[in-house]
Amino acid sequence: MSEWVLILGGSTGHGAATAKRLANDGYGIIAFHFDRGDAKKLAVETITEVNEITGGRCHYFNTNAAAEETMDKYIPQIKEITSGEPVKLLLHSIAFGTTTNLFGEKPVTQRQMDMTVHVMGNALLYWTQKLYAEGLLANGSRVMGLTSEGNYVAMEGYGPVSVAKVAMEAIIRQIGWELGQFGITANAVQAGVTPTRALTKITEGWERWIENTKKRNPMRRTTTPEDVAGTISMLLQPEADFINCSIIYCDGGESRSGSF
Fold first, then answer.
1. What is the spatial distance between Cα 43 and Cα 20, in angstroms, rounded to a whole number?
2. Nearest residue to 148 via CA among 47, 57, 216, 249
3. pTM, two decimal places
């Protein structure tokens, strides 16, 4: 099995924390991000750190990972980087979509909904299909995506993202069901409310979300990207080979602790 992992959305938040953790675990990092402006500065900081940890075994591509032309262009490069060996992990950590309500002053449009569901849900399927066809997913490989409590709890401005994450969960479940016979597993990791840049884009009341979360979480704090990165690292161990088609909760019990 290759010592490389592939992260879609690896420059900030959960993706960046996972890249750093897995780099420290000894994996080479291949990651995609799509950053401009201030976000690009944060991405450069992540890339610099990951590059130092890996001793140069780090490849970041600043382009739209959800586009089919990106997959077709870069998968041959990924195969060259890994010398044709399968990647240990394909992680979907892209946080890019429309955050608005379904009704009201600015209801979500069909174009916005289609884009959100594609980028944050369906794109994981197309990456998996293409990587599998090229032999870059094989026995021992993991496919993972990040989900949230918003999939079954209605939240202000979260409707389109919720639909995308539900689609992603279904895709992950089906990937694990179909590819499990080849030793390829697929699971979703459900994080609790995490103070990241992505959270501030969901609602203007994100600071209230954080304070409420601290009160209702049994561990009296919010989830950190490092919590999620640690969970993903654990799921790459051989002892996790039989965990498949599942949702793994990394939220301190938050989702079991009453109303949002």
1. 12
2. 249
3. 0.94
The rounded distance, in Å, linking the Cα atoms of 30 and 37 is 22
**Three-state SS at 42:** helix
Q: Does residue 170 or residue 205 have the better pLDDT? A: 170
Distance CA 224, CA 66 (A): 25
Consecutive H or E run containing 148 = strand 142-148
CATH class of 4-256: alpha beta
Answer for the pair 43, 72: CB distance below 8 angstroms, yes or no: no
Whether the per-residue pLDDT at 143 is higher than 90: the answer is yes
Closest Cα partner for 83 from 129, 143, 134?
134
**What whole-number distance in Å separates Cα of residue 27 and Cα of residue 167?**
29
Q: Burial of 26 by CB count in 10 Å (0-12 exposed, 13-18 middle, 19+ buried)? A: exposed
Task: For residue range 201-210, list pLDDT tens digits in order.
Answer: 665 666 777 7
pLDDT in tens, 152-162: 888 888 899 99
Q: How far apart are the two ends of the chain, measured CA to CA in Å?
A: 42
**Residue appearing with tokens 């950190």:** 224
Q: Residue 37 has which token pair?
A: 């402006």
